[in-house]
Amino acid sequence: MDRDTAVQMAQQAIKARNRRLVEAVLEIKAQREQQPAADQSIHDLPLIGVTVATGWECYAVVEELVKSGKYRVKAMYRTPGTHAAAKLERLYQQTEAEQPGLLTLHSGVDMYSAERLTEAFSDCDGLVLYMTANSARAGKITNHGNRPTEGRAVFMQQVQAALAALKANPGIKHVITLVFPTDKVTAIADTAPTIPWWIDQRLRTSNFLRGQGINVTCIHRPAYYYGMHRVDYANELDQRGSTAMSRNVIKENCVPGINDPDFMVNWVDVRDVGKWCVTVFEYPEVFSNEDFSIASAAMTGNEAVATCERTNKHGTKFKYQRFPQWVMKMITLFTEEVVYPLRYSQWYNSTGNGYDFASNDDLADLDRINPRWTFEKKLADWGITDIRPGS
Q1: Nearest in space to 352 (alpha carbons), one of 208, 228, 204, 223
Q2: The pairing of beta strand 126-129 with beta strand 47-50
Q3: Is the pLDDT of residue 241 over 70?
Q4: What pLDDT shows up at residue 196?
């Protein structure tokens, strides 16, 4: 089977599953609106734990769960006193002033320690479980992209510790994992590049946990965040790396990318990930042990440029600027910082895996429940719409 056929068939199956899940949610929602549940006090709300809560994605999950007002939230993280932890502290202080008891912070949570995780998971009814093939301590990331033997051991140590803690806390009835898009081509398409080991490792995790009796909803979200130039949402626009690629930002005559300008890429805003975590916990009868694919946008580099120009208030011109693979390969000789983006661009490019959604129209079902944080919204949020020519 050729690659395009494999991807198209997978896309159709993903959209059909999403439609089924969305329609089931809407049906239950309509029934609940006919018989509204009684209001609960904050102390009676279910408690949701979120691991790695100072990270870019999981901080947004914490924030959206808190905003929903439907759950108490326990934000778990390892190191207090960091820049990212300070932002979490501010969210806690704001929440305490408005809704005391809705958010609690739990530091000292080592993702490699079953003992620490068991303590942190206590009293939780649900859990957002994030694990990575990187090692990170107080914001210092060790990239294992070129070291699969070490990286697999690092990752599976987290999985084993989390599994032990889940077994020790049977009150946790529902776990959400946040993972890359599903594999559509390996052993299906006639030719396909080798899947990067850390993507393969994370794709296996949800089913591994299910096999141990854990109820897992896997949210597949794109590997590309809107902050493609690696601006860290949790660190308030602090940039995460030191290479030219890390400092690449959208500006006049420059919309940076690492794929061909006509290649369709799915993007996600971390706030959308958080909103769907709220929905999954709200409708466990729909999402239990299901895989669910989300995205915030589907667009090519050229389409991103067109959107920048259409939404800019001053007629500023933009141009797609691809960060070439050969440059990324050269950079990897001196730093591991761009190993992951390089492997993404190789794996998801035209001969590789392809994305879950072929166009923005394919995402319409998601909007029926949670309107997406569109690229237009993100450009306004970044201030791109206000860039003046020559500024």
Answers
A1: 223
A2: parallel
A3: no
A4: 84
